[in-house]
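Review this chain:
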Amino acid sequence: MKGPDFICIGLPKAGTGWLYDQLDAHPDFWMPPVKEILYLERPISKMQFVRPSGQPRRGRGDRERLVNRPNLDARDYEFLKFAATCQGEPRDMTRYAQLFCYKGDLLSGDISPPYWSLSEDVIETIGARFPETKIIMLVRDPVSRAWSRISMAYRSELFDPLLLHDRAGFKGYVDATRKIGSIRATEIMQRWQRLAPRNPFQWFAFDDIAERPDKARHDIVTFLGADPDKKGSGLVADYNRKSEEKKLDMNVMTRAVLAEHYAEELKAGAQQFGGAAIGWLSKYSA
């Protein structure tokens, strides 16, 4: 069984929601009815987007990890029915491959940002079992990416805004919060290329998604093997369902702390990625 045509390994807060929406609307793709499958994340699968009966779990508060597709078709229900049988079962690559058998002749894949932290043994297993699966990573200025995650935590009442005026406290929060302070795109890319060298790998800059979405969509769809000129539902390239979400304002202190925290990553990114990443370095070196 072939498995997914591609796996998106993040990064979190770098445009993965945009990517899912764009591919879900494209006629060359069948995307699972939930954005984040997360099957590979844990040794024992949760599959929290489906009930044991095979019915979808829906919810307005979590568009990423619950089913939010308004109209489900027969393929979606078959996917959900099988996903329910995976709950509480050990991670198994044959089961994982079967999650994508409902795509028929279309392309399909897994967009789960937490995969940035997959262990080395899981990456090696993916490379050995699915050597033709394309790996895609969305890369963003690490300071802005971290700030977006902090804003998300604030909206969920998981971030104390008093830290915005407490340098030591804010620095401690960044250092201690794994999903903010521990993500380094350069290391993730190097790890995948070392452990799964046969898998086609490509990264794309969040800057292009934000500033040149038509080009970003064209380049990504082309890399994934689909026709970038096909018209689907008419979803515009700059569609962003999160555009109305409240964001914190980054003050001078928080910007300085994040720039210091990511100083080495900014340098490494400029060297490894070039392009937009060179601008990230100069932006925070000024």
About this structure: The CA atoms of residues 53 and 141 lie 42 Å apart.
